[in-house]
Amino acid sequence: MNLDMTMFHQAFFEEAGDLLADLEGLLLRLEEDPGDLELLNTIFRCAHSIKGGSATFGFTDIAHFTHGLETLLDKVRNGEIKIDRSLSQVLFESLDQMKALLSVARGESASAPDSSALSARIEAAILGQPAIVAAQPTLPKQKAAEEEGWGVWSLAHTYRLYFAPGPDILRQGGDPLLLLGQLGKVSDILSIVCDDSRLPALADMDPEACYLSWEVELRSDKTSEEILEIFEFVADDSEIRLEVTSETRSPAAAAPAAPMEAAPPAAEPVAEVPAAEPTPAMAPPAALPVEAAAKAAPPAEAQTLRVATDKVDKLINLVGELVINQSMLNEVVQDFSMAKLPRLIEAVAEMERASRELQERVMAVRMLPIKHAFGRFPRLVRDLAATVGKKIELKTSGEDTELDKGMIESIADPLTHLVRNSIDHGLETPEERRAAGKPEQGTVSLHALHEGGSIAVEVSDDGRGLSRERILKKAIERGWVTENDTPSDETLYNFIFMPGFSTAPAVTDLSGRGVGMDIVKQGVQALGGSITLTSTPGVGTTFRIRLPLTMAILEGLSLTVGNETYILPLTSIVESIQPAAGDVRKIAGRTEIALVRGEVLPVVRLYQVFGSSPKVTDPTQGLLVIVENDNHKVALLVDELIGQSQVVIKSLETNYRKVRGIAGATIMGDGRVALILDVPGLVRDTLSESAALAAAA
Questions:
Q1: CA-CA distances (angstroms) from residue 611 to 433, 561, 562, 608?
Q2: At what angle do helices 85-105 and 9-32 cross, to 10 degrees?
Q3: Closest to 165 measured CA to CA, from 235, 63, 102, 223
Q4: Distances from the Cα of 347 to the Cα of 315, 317, 357, 677, angstroms
Q5: SS3 397
Q6: H-helix or E-strand spanning residue 378
Q7: Parallel, antiparallel, or unpaired for β 573-577 and 673-677?
Q8: pTM to 2 decimals?
Q9: Do the beta carbons of residue 411 and residue 446 sit within 8 Å?
Q10: What number is the average pLDDT over the span 625-654?
Q11: CA 418, CA 457: separation in Å to the nearest integer?
Q12: Cβ pair 170, 123 in contact under 8 A
């Protein structure tokens, strides 16, 4: 039977992605504590699992490359090689290479960077040469040797293997031929003999039982343990014997003499990195590592979702309750009489409870800890710190705060941009910090917390803070304010979210082109969130992103304008009032405003925005709902409020087209369609119109 291995590829990609993410965190910890043996063992196991899986599923490029890394890690954990900063850099670059190879295997990119130079550095480290930072060309003999087998430093073993599977291996889903096929992929099969002496008479034969055994002679550079790993899942029920009959050096194993001679003298290593004090030469190239770190989130996660078993069990229980409730309702309504009314009410109430709980449980399935988004930043900060020559500590908290999976994936890029800006612009150089009386090491903090029905994520630094003077100067140049204006800090700092705004004195690889912060804001708003910032000169800057828990279900307030029903997101509502006569008036006969406890708010008549026929045009006969976005408030005139409810959001843009002032649609309990109001858009349009009227006056 030929087994289609491609059906397991997605599972391998997910597992490898998780292992690579784990490996990155472990390598960062290893830099801090290079003597932690348990850490080294865990790192080795990660690399070993990736190699084993990639070899099993036919991704030989990953297996070949990881094999060399695994050998290096084995020597490190055995104490034969000492971890220093240059070797650590090799490990991180190896991690990036494995990610690139995995990306190619997944079909996400056409090719990966050439790994020959990196493989040569790994090999040099294995052979006991100083870890070399600069890429060394792969010598022809090495390359030829690599192309011939799994490595250039191992022995070739000849084994004799006896494999007698347990009689139930087929019933348990095992396949002896598949295992022997895997054996053939990691060795040269010299001979194989099948023993069918245990086959019973045909009448006594159980077609699902296995009566065969095999004796195999093979040659491989794999160790006995690596050979036996192929059979590890059937080892308990099988008889397996493996013995080495001979050992010889493979042709490639003689090659080390050449690279050792070709390598630079030990006393004068080329571009060797001092272990104690990194130099610019050893800093990772700005573009490649940073981009690699920024793209660390495994894209495969966007297509699948791993769910804890207990969550699925609870869903199954709730579905069972719904089935029971449905049976109860059927029984009641089939022969209904008023005597059964209390039972009907009870059954409906129970159905409502189970449905509500089912909805909450289903939403919980999509909730993941935000540490899935935070996980990319330790590596990013490490590489950027080396690039800009700053000492930076990353602090994270609230990592267990849960957010919708889709939101976590979407918020990663805005967070990455904010962290990069904090490092490049916010934090001072060690010299500047010493001069300011600060510790040389700056801090970038990521913090997440629940805040009512939403999530707040903060990115802060203890750097120099925003320069009010420079922002004001740039705003005057752009004509956003005049020299006579004295805008508040809040108003002034929000200019950095304007397209093309930048006060950076020079364009760097990281920032300074005036693109990004407006994209960050748009990205956050696209998620239904908002972003604000506070900054204190000499103390630091904090960006605060507020996000809804999920974009699939909305907690909203139903309201009517004419015959139409609209949904207003609850998180945007400040209050609703019925104004008294005189509280609503027009300025210069054009702009309509409402006075609410001394605050002047623009009035938006929704029936004018959407061209509907209202029941109420006099604000004193209707209601003003005060909504807020980005610290700006407007008052929406509506006919009446219906009530609070949870609604399932449907994309209007996907199913129809984008409509001004509308964020989506939903289906109400009575089957009617209700439109969900786009509060940020309404506020933005209202402010723009007010500014235009003011300018024209």
A1: 58, 10, 10, 5
A2: 170
A3: 235
A4: 20, 17, 15, 35
A5: strand
A6: helix 377-388
A7: unpaired
A8: 0.58
A9: no
A10: 85
A11: 11
A12: no
Measured in whole angstroms, the distance separating CA 289 from the mean position of its chain's CA atoms is: 17
Q: How many CA atoms within 13 Å lie on the side-chain side of 386? A: 22
What six digits make up the tokens of 404? 């919708």
Token pair of 539 as six digits: 């103390």
Beta bridge partners of 240: 163
Q: Residues 551-565, buried b or exposed e (16+ Cβ, 10 A)?
A: bebbbbbbbbbeebb
Nearest in space to 601 (alpha carbons), one of 640, 628, 641: 628
SS3 445: strand
For residue 336, give Cα distances in angstroms to 328, 330, 344.
Answer: 12, 10, 9
Q: What length does the chain have?
A: 697
**Tens-place pLDDT, residues 285-341:** 333 344 444 444 444 444 567 777 888 888 888 888 888 888 888 888 887 888 888
Which two tokens mark 168? 């139930």
Q: Which of these ranges, 153-167, 362-376, 393-407, 531-545, has the smallest mean pLDDT?
A: 153-167
Say whether 441 sits in a helix, a strand or coil.
Answer: strand
* Digit-coded pLDDT (tens) for 8-22: 788 888 888 888 888
Residue 576 burial (C-beta neighbours within 10 Å; 0-12, 13-18, 19+): middle
With beta carbons less than 8 A apart as the criterion, state whether 474 and 503 touch. Answer: yes
Q: Which residue has the tokens 């850490």?
A: 39
Distance, first Cα to last Cα, the chain: 83
DSSP-derived secondary structure for 520-579: HHHHHHHTT-EEEEEEETTTEEEEEEEEES-SSEEEEEEEEETTEEEEEEGGGEEEEE-P
